[in-house]
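note to self — DONT lose this again. spent like an hour looking for the file last time. sequence + predicted structure for the chain T wanted, 121 res
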Amino acid sequence: MQWWIDYFNDVDTMDTERFGAWFADDMELQFNNAPLIHGKAAVLGFLREFTRNFSSLKHSHGQLVGDETSAAGEAMIVFVRPDDARYSVRGVTMVTRDETGFRRMAIYADFSEIYAAVQGA
């Protein structure tokens, strides 16, 4: 699905305005077991904070299922810190969308290695 690839190419730029253009104003984000995040502004704020310790990231896609309105896909995401330390995380993202943009997104991945490295920095 081209829209999926296009969205993650935008995510990999780490430009919140660019990938935020995909989000509906009232979208919801479920990030692992954290409380549900409501609204585009809150989602973008969360994602900015989550990635602030990294200079780049890159998604390599695995299995993808879905259609034009919903999809779920696996990926290996490589996060790079400013000191060039690299962390690979396997995750799954699920998206539901309509003509207004992404309505709901859920991200499930084990970020414990990244959290440990950032806390130790």
